[in-house]
Amino acid sequence: MFIGLDLGTSGVRAVLVRPDGSVLASAESGLFADHPYPGWSEQDPANWVSAARAALVALAQRHPLAMEQVAGVGLSGQMHGAVLLDPAGVVLRPAILWNDGRSHGEAAELDAMADVRDLSGNIVFPGFTAPKLLWLARHEPEGFARVATVLLPKDYLAWWLTGEIGTEMSDAAGTAWLDVGARDWSDRLLKVGGMRRDQMPDLREGTGIVGPLRPDLAAELGLPDGVQVVAGGADNAAAACGVGALAEGDGFVSLGTSGVLFAARNGFYPDPASAVHTFCHAVPGRWYQMGVILAATDSLNWLARITGVEAATLTGELGALGAPGPMRFLPYLSGERTPHNDAAMRGAFLHLDIAQTRTDLTRAVVEGVSFALRDSLDALRATGADLPRLLAIGGGTRSRYWVELLATVLGLPLDLPEQGDFGAALGAARLAICGVTGADPEQVMTRPPIAETIDPRADLLDAYAQAHADFAASYPKLKALP
């Protein structure tokens, strides 16, 4: 048996997986982020440990015999967060998370430096780890001076589980300290960020062994001696392992809190100016690229909150897919990444009319999110990515209207997987299977069974192409407003 442990922003999820990759059971434990000032987002790493322990204990209570057969634990987690340890291994301050925007000035400063984009393969976004440390050096210099090691969130859990310090390529690629093409820490990037190589965790591939589980934890959790902890992957890389997106042409679109359009790549093909992320994959010798929008289902949840109506009810009122509505929604509620790299931008409704209804607002929101994902698809194609079809995952795919709309806006067939456990936690377990057994990732990380394929509506392709062009033209006009 194998365990996948996924540390998200809102909770920790653990899945117990059979040797054939099928999921026996899962358990979750919730988390909350603190926002002490506008634009700040932090979590106490001690709460990650408590949540992970609770999820693992729940599995042990429900399936004690299966837990006695566990051979490996794989990890996945939220990217970019900065966990700071002093020389004694004490956490110096709450972890600064991926969605924390306080270091936007430092990010712009690093991004403008020579060689930074070339080496990292990416724009330096405010959410990345390097600008967070530069901010700390300037605003919390006493704490910064005590930093002995910087860990990423899931790697803090690995340290708790094993006592070993390390990270892996897919997570390290989101720090802006890694030479993503060479898959090694960059002395140049570390220097301009005010860091040293000895402050960096050791690098492994995602299938690499971190070390054995601590005996005291094994006893507490009902696990056998000698369970190996495998490095795992960053959340989207692990999710790709969970849905079998490993090779050129494989990809998925995720309608989650944020929106992701993911393309697996067989080589390193960065295009930082497009605001496409180019990162190492969690499997050796592979990379991936993704366009990211910051508010996908978050936009719908925002509308649900201000109307007092549940999101599922809002989308259920939409009826059958028809021509685009006259209203436009720009989903930049928290700024935007791909393709604009604009942390300051905010959202808008355009062409509001007194005759419009709540349903018109909902239609505009789901159209706006879909148009923003089309921007990401265009940016990915500009790097040479070829995506003939996409797997559609995430909570937003429960809306048939939204999936049909998105297929039409993207002009691609969308495959809906059968119901079941998949994604980052399953991907982490699959990485553990490969790490412990030496199995070929392509044999383990297969696509899920497809329940249905939603094709683009041929009769609406032209109308939605024009609507997307109008949407894309709105950004510079909105940006110009005071």
Q: Give the DSSP E fraction (strand runs of 2 or more residues).
A: 15-25%
For this structure, the quaternary state is single chain
Nearest-integer average pLDDT:
95
Tell me the number of strands.
23
Tally of individual helices: 18
Distance between the termini: 58 Å
CATH class of the largest domain: Alpha Beta
What is the overall silhouette?
globular
Q: From the coordinates shown, what is the CATH architecture of the largest domain?
A: 2-Layer Sandwich
As laid out across the biggest beta sheet, the strand order is 17-18-16-15-21-22-23
Name the poorly predicted regions.
none
Number of domains: 2
CATH superfamily of the largest domain: ATPase, nucleotide binding domain
Radius of gyration: 22 Å
- The residue fraction in helices comes out at 25-40%
Major beta sheet summary: 7 strands, mixed
Enzyme class: transferase
Binding site for substrate: 79-80
Keywords: ATP-binding, Carbohydrate metabolism, Kinase, Nucleotide-binding, Transferase, Xylose metabolism
GO molecular function: D-xylulokinase activity
Could you write a compact summary of the structure shown?
This protein has 18 helices and 23 strands. Helix content is about 35%, strand content about 20%. The strands form 7 sheets. A 7-stranded mixed β-sheet has the order 17-18-16-15-21-22-23. The protein has a 6-stranded mixed β-sheet with strand order 3-2-1-5-14-13.
SSE blueprint and pairings:
Layout lengths: L1 E6 L3 E7 L5 E8 L11 E2 L1 H18 L1 H4 L4 E6 L5 E3 L9 E2 L7 H8 L4 H5 L8 H11 L1 H5 L3 E3 L1 H10 L3 E3 H4 L5 E2 L4 E2 L1 H6 L9 E3 L4 E4 L2 H7 L6 E7 H9 L7 E5 L3 E7 L11 E4 L6 E7 L3 H11 L3 H6 L11 E3 L17 E3 L7 H25 L7 E4 L6 H11 L3 E4 L6 H14 L3 H4 L5 E5 L6 H19 L3
Enzyme class: transferase
Family: Belongs to the FGGY kinase family.
Catalytic activity: D-xylulose + ATP = D-xylulose 5-phosphate + ADP + H(+)
